[in-house]
Design goal:
With 683 residues, the chain is of the alpha+beta class. It contains eleven helices and 40 strands. It starts with 8 loop residues before the first helix and ends with a helix.
Length: 683
């Protein structure tokens, strides 16, 4: 159930003890070793714990300390926070829960009651990636665009502000950050057609402090600042009619000494540049890292990883700040491994490119010109209506799953994937209807060959990367991609959830696996480590879903999964997970599909409607997705119209489409899905 009771303030004050006495800016800048009070633990977003009670020598004694069942089967991507002995977690639909961090006792829960209709707007599941803390508040950003401050002791709202215009298809899945007494939040929605921006609000009152747009708007309306006027010179056509995209839906970082906030900017809207900016151009600030002044939001510098991007090569992936000795000189650097396959090292004061090397096999570029900072692009990947096979695919070489940096080893630990995708431009595009402007449809021989190649070269691994030498140091054995975010610790350990429904630890220096435990689910979120009363804990959210589940092939349908959970471990932990239920959460095996009775014309209509309305959640060409619709059970086929038009499964996030589809259109989509099931049936 989504409706969770909120305890009374009096009961909470008695139960919570000292909880969240006050998180000041100084405490966020330099947290105590046992704290985890921001998403990456520090402003530098290192995802590194200085604790070493759990180490490579004794990690074999690690056991489950406690766990908490989570109330949804959707993707669990959040990084918890631990403040003054209280663990704060957030799950899909932005439900926030506070636990005693040592015992797991639930202290309070808060449900913001996000309207279920927003579930159909969210690209890549109804996920949320975390919370923020400041003063005595916990901050949550909701899928429908609100930013809410909660009292950390009671869970009661302190203030709430709507950060987006709900007339546009904005959503929020990222974690807020607090810098200089301001709460910063971006948004998502580029796949639907919006204009991206980041907003800063006063952490105490919710008053807006500044807003920085990431792409220019309509020149006729005037530009907000000189940066937007500069960016507009790199666009052509009427890009603003489809928003332009550039949403900052995930990572940020902050250097308090320089007073700079670093914003990762996303993909264009629509994807295909021929429809977005028909005359070409770099299309700033798409796929860029942008530095702005923390006090004013004024532009300071940018570095664009993928000029004129049209492959969903976002640069919103986690950024890490540190100091490195490069060519004998100590440099203040920013490091990022965005979707496009390169690992970048930038001077974080000036934006100067210091290093760039690909971390996976790619074909869209042969390298980066260190003089100009621009990629040496393969012109063949600029796609028209003929399909082109490109690597990395839209899922990226590295996506949102946090990487980690250990100052002890000097290595960055990255969850890496090798991915390929067949792209072609849609034959037409209407800004009023939105969409990607990119097509994944068609079953011709060339498209089929490219899909087979992509499937055969799909893999993932955990990599240790030397950012100075720009080389791989070690990797875990190759495996099916889908493993989770990463935590590094001073105990010479790297923790990661595995696609094989386990949670594992590796030696940080060599990559040797030193511990692994079955956990009945896939922990795709980033783990954390904290200490309460002298005891070190490791915590992680486990629940399969999110972006990768949207684009993967049928083999993932055979994952047999238990209930999503928050899992907390300690040395000597003796808690046990309950036995797997008889009916585990799993996508059905491929069953013989219904016989296709619709005409080719109806199937073609359904194909186009599916791409417009369904593909963001259920995968391009109906491959993968939150629910792989090629694998529908007979009862689902029987209830198809009740689900799509009647909202029968709205509580599961499948809202009714009766406001955008009529019965004939819904039947056409159903016919297309039956056709796709028959095409891929291997029985």
């Amino acid at each position: 159930m989504r409706a969770l009771a909120v305890l009374t303030a009096a009961a909470l004050l008695a139960a919570a003890g000292p909880g969240a006495a006050g998180v000041a800016d100084a405490r966020l800048a330099a947290p105590a070793p046992g704290e985890w009070i921001s998403t990456g633990r520090t402003y530098a977003e290192e995802h590194y714990s200085p604790l070493d009670q759990i180490n490579a020598g004794n990690v074999g004694q690690l056991g489950l300390a406690w766990y908490a069942d989570l109330a949804t089967d959707r993707g669990q991507e959040a990084t918890p926070l631990v403040v003054d002995g209280v663990l704060f977690d957030v799950e899909p639909w932005n439900i926030v829960t506070a636990y005693d961090a040592a015992t797991g006792k639930k202290l309070w829960s808060y449900d913001p009651h996000v309207p279920l209709k927003f579930g159909r707007l969210a690209c890549c599941d109804i996920v949320t990636r975390g919370l923020a803390a400041w003063g005595g508040n916990i901050y949550v950003a909701t899928l429908d665009g609100r930013l809410i401050a909660l009292d950390a002791k009671s869970g009661q709202p302190v203030w709430s502000v709507l950060t987006v215009d709900n007339a546009w298809p904005y959503t929020i899945t990222g974690a807020p950050r607090v810098y200089d007494g301001k709460v910063l939040i971006g948004n998502g929605g580029a796949e639907r057609g919006v204009r991206g921006y980041v907003t800063a609000y006063d952490a105490a009152t919710g008053a807006q402090a500044w807003r920085f747009y990431t792409v220019p708007g309509n020149p006729a309306d005037g530009f907000e600042n000189a940066a937007m006027a500069m960016a507009a010179k790199t666009w052509t056509g009427e890009w603003w009619k489809a928003g332009g995209g550039g949403t900052a839906w995930d990572a940020m970082a902050y250097d308090p000494k320089l007073g700079l906030v670093y914003i990762g900017v996303g993909n264009g809207s629509p994807w295909a540049q021929k429809w977005r900016s028909p005359g070409g151009g770099d299309n700033l600030f798409l796929a860029s890292i942008v530095a702005v002044d923390v006090k004013t939001g004024e532009y300071r510098w940018h570095y664009q990883t993928t000029p004129g991007e049209e492959w969903d090569y976002t640069a919103v992936q986690p950024m890490i700040l540190t100091d490195l000795v490069i060519d004998g000189k100590k440099r203040q650097v920013l490091m990022q491994a965005p979707k496009n396959g390169f690992f970048y090292v930038l001077d974080r004061k000036t934006g100067e490119l210091l290093g760039a090397r690909n971390i996976v096999p790619i074909n869209w570029a042969s390298g980066v010109d260190m003089t100009t900072g621009r990629p040496i692009e393969n012109p063949q990947v600029r796609y028209g209506e003929d399909p082109v096979l490109v690597s990395p695919a839209a899922g990226g070489a590295h996506n949102w799953n946090p990487m980690a940096f250990s100052p002890k080893t000097g290595l960055v630990y990255i969850p890496v994937t090798e991915t390929w995708m067949s792209y072609s431009a849609a034959p037409s595009y209407d800004p009023a209807k939105g969409g990607l402007g990119t097509s994944f449809m068609g079953a011709g021989e060339e498209r089929k060959r490219q899909a087979e190649y992509a499937d055969a070269h799909s893999k993932g691994w955990l990599m240790a990367w030397d950012p100075v030498a720009q080389r791989e140091v070690w990797r875990t054995p190759n495996e099916q991609k889908g493993s989770g975010g990463v935590l590094a610790t001073a105990g010479n350990l790297v923790f990661q959830g595995k696609i094989g429904t386990t949670f594992a630890a590796y030696r940080a220096d060599t990559g040797e696996k030193v511990w692994e435990m079955p956990v009945q689910q896939v922990p795709i979120a980033a783990p954390i480590s904290y200490m309460v009363d002298g005891v070190q804990y490791i915590a992680v959210n486990a629940g399969w879903g999110g972006g990768l589940a949207h684009v993967e092939k049928a083999s993932y349908s055979k994952l047999v999964l238990g209930k999503p959970r928050l899992l907390v471990f300690k040395l000597g932990g003796t808690a046990k997970l309950p036995p797997m239920p008889a009916e585990s959460f799993a996508v059905p095996e491929l069953l013989p599909p219904p016989k296709l009775e619709a005409s080719a014309e109806t199937v073609a209509q359904g194909e186009a409607l599916y791409a417009e309305h369904c593909s963001l959640c259920h995968g391009a060409a109906a491959r993968g997705g939150v629910k792989d619709l090629r694998h529908m059970a007979p009862t689902t086929h029987d209830e198809f119209l009740d689900i799509v038009l009647g909202g029968k499964r709205a509580k599961n996030g499948m809202a009714s489409f009766a406001d955008t589809l009529d019965e004939a259109q819904a039947k056409a989509i159903h016919a297309y899905l039956i056709a796709r099931a028959n095409e891929d049936w291997e029985g």
